[in-house]
Amino acid sequence: MSMTTSPLLSTPGAARVSACVRGSGGAIRVSRAFASPQQQPPSARRQLAVSARSVGTGKSGRGGKAGGGGSSGDEGEGGSSLKEVLTSRRAILVGKTLFTVGEAFIFPWATESRTRPPSPGDEDLTPFSPAWLKSLLYSESDPEAKARGKATLARGEELAAEGRYTEAVALLETVPGIAPKEYKMVQRAYLQLEKCNDKLGQPEVGNEWSSKVWWWGRGTRWPGWYIIAYLSGRSLFFTAKEDNVGSFTVTEGLVFLVPIWIGLLYVLTEYGIPDY
């Protein structure tokens, strides 16, 4: 921006000054007659101040159109940035929702289906169908089959205690097929098979049976899935509220955390720990 001033005609008791100010909005000529700031009329001072401001912002007369164009560009950029922020936030919410559903439902149920002993007819079920879901829920085994499984397990352990490991392995391997839904019984048989194979000098086979114990233990009975799902759902809730703090409260602890922990411990003790 450049400014040139030139003294022009003089009037009694006053000086006339012409100023040409060049800015981005073009050139504006300001001409005013005054003797001193004290003698200049207030309205003239205000008009001169307004003219000077319009030069700095590029909004004056015909130059106002150019200034308005710049403002529209800024608004367009701002709208684009806001759209990106909203899209990013929506993606975060969707991601957290999917993760919560996965931890609470998909991962434990799929792991349970793939790692527990198959029951008759399971191979014909469609994954995540109502019948498939029902087959994964705990149900009482046939009393006769359960008694036969217990007797087979006890006899296998007797043979192992006598050092007859080959016979013990052959007998213990039949336990999962007798009562496949009896978690504690089958897991105990798996652990005995691990020990017997180690005694027979086949540690790699023993590791396979140990892996079966570990993986089935990460099915629907494993509390870690539901703890992570709770924390993920909690994060989703506060993200949706645009609350970045989300601190724990006493009410939340009493209403949610304590019952969840007690429930998980009961399920784990009752159904999820093998009878060592």
Main traits of this protein?
single chain, 276 residues, mainly alpha, three-stranded antiparallel beta sheet, 10 helices, 3 strands, elongated
List the helices and strands and how they pair.
Layout: E1 2-11, E2 14-23, E3 26-34, H1 42-57, H2 64-115, H3 130-136, H4 143-161, H5 165-172, H6 175-178, H7 183-199, H8 203-216, H9 223-240, H10 250-272
Helix tally equals 10
The strand line-up of the biggest sheet is: 1-2-3
Weakly predicted, low-confidence segments: 1-37, 52-72
What is the rounded Rg?
Answer: 41 Å
Write a compact overview of the structure shown.
The chain has 276 residues and is mainly α. The chain contains ten helices and three strands. Strands 1-2-3 form a three-stranded antiparallel beta sheet, covered by helices on one side.
Overall description:
Helix content is 64%, strand content 11%. It has ten helices and three strands. The protein has helices at residues 42-57, 64-115, 130-136, 143-161, 165-172, 175-178, 183-199, 203-216, 223-240, 250-272; strands at 2-11, 14-23, 26-34. Strand 1 (2-11) and strand 2 form a beta hairpin. Helix 2 packs antiparallel against helix 9 (223-240), helix 4 packs antiparallel against helix 5 and helix 7 runs antiparallel to helix 8. The radius of gyration is 41 Å and the shape is elongated. The model is unreliable at 1-37 and 52-72 (pLDDT under 50).
